[in-house]
Amino acid sequence: MAFRKPSVLPGFGLTLGFTLLYLGLLVLIPLAGIFLETAQISWAQFWQIVTSPRALASYRLSFGASLAAALINAVFGLIVAWVLVRYRFPGRRLIDALVDLPFALPTSVAGIALTAIYSSKGWVGSLVDPWGVKVAFTPLGVTLALVFIGIPFAVRTVQPVLADLDPQVEEAAASLGATRWQTFLRVGLPALCPAVLTGFALAFARAVGEYGSVIFISGNMPMKTEIAPLLIVTKLEQYDYTGATALAVAMLVASFALLLAINLLQCWGRCRHT
Amino acid sequence: MPTDTDRSSGRPTRAIAAASLAEPRFVRLTLLGVALAFLGLFLALPLAVVFTEALRKGVACYLEAVSEPLACAAVRLTLLAAALAVPLNLVFGLAAAWAIGKFEFRGKQVLLALIDLPFSVSPVVAGMIYVLIFGLQGWLGPWLDARGIRIVFAVPGIVLATLFVTFPFVARELIPLMQEQGTAEEEAAITLGANGWQTFWRVTLPNVKWGLLYGVILCNARAMGEFGAVSVVSGHVRGLTNTLPLHVEILYNEYQSAAAFAVASLLALLALVTLAAKSAVEWRARRQMRAALAPPKEQCRV
Fold first, then answer.
1. Fewest Cβ atoms closer than 10 Å to its Cβ: which of B27, B80, B151, B191?
2. What is the ipTM, given to two decimal places?
């Protein structure tokens, strides 16, 4: 097979060449640099760095909080998408636009705002403080910040699928005697399942690497509330480039695995759709 | 498209539909309440707190915080980084979308995956890769230093990090759009004697203008708001390598809370403008889509 199908349109060589050059210089070569840098240390050294107790504690927090946040987002994202697609109420367009706020709001702004809300003197923090619930500077605070970051992923992946859902299928289920709840569980939910899972995975992947919105609310205590990206920054600031790159490689491998999972999920969703 | 089946149609199924296609009223109200409470707690509240905290010490204090020289320097640097990053990524997005959307070639799926790569890399790692290359201990660092060129902990590094994190935005909007539109119109233009540039300017670009604008809006918001990647390469030199999001962090860590929130409120306003512009573009694009009679086709990208 030839490299490309013949076409009368011009500019293939120019645009593909520019694309590859730009991609290579800006993304691929610098990223490959991380792997090359790590190759300078032995496997044993690498393993020692990425499995040090402090690193393990940071993965536990990063992945645990991300998982919890993504689960919360999957549930509430489905509810929000359902309400926005199926119901008509005043202010719906405004709220629909607001869902993308975490994309548009710089993460440092989100970070200080969430800290102000959930610190023991803040609007919400002062309400839960008498009950002994501490939010800011605990893993709970980290989770809340990651929920904020993941909202648009969870809502925006489900919304179009829900809007495209053929009402006739639900009508059929209803006319055959299914209750509303049965229709949702047996007809609606299976059709939405790939989208919900994709949203979950996207929110999770974003949360694992998130830095800006978390570092303010987390308090950054080593072994307790230190997320993995912060540990990388700490090592960089101490000029421990070897340690930082080793951790970065571990995180890159994790996110590539997630990316693969997301692609497979989307593939599955399309196969069901067609 | 919103589905409003149970209200409009006068079909025989209407009775069933009314009974079984809508949830009972109390379920609807509960779901609505849960959704609004969730969004209120996580989206509206942070936004409200930014503006309240910013104005806590009065308007005079607010104006002083946003007009002091260091804040102005941060605004200038943020605008500069965005002014460089957005056009470069726009050109890249157009080139990539032309190559991928208008031609069939091997390895296309791999290329698509690679273009999405920066989205799945932690911003911290995105900044770090440039420190490894251009930093003083990096590969090119000593060579550049001998020639008096500084990239990391200087403005070029900030631009590079911004370019990296905003890399896929325009391309991601344009590629599916151009794939969907196919090549028939361009082929017609070429057959009628237009050259490549004319075809691009008069046929392709008008067809994708809304998608393009949408991508630029998102790209710009991220370019101005990026924190993690820029923080790693900036070195936090006040007045020189401090962007607005970094300025917020410094003020906050120095316990100048009101000033930090005042500067943050500028960024929050930017976010609101972004959301408004995005909604406007979506609305225009949808209207145009409805005007064009052909229903949108499903494109399979595996």
1. B191
2. 0.89
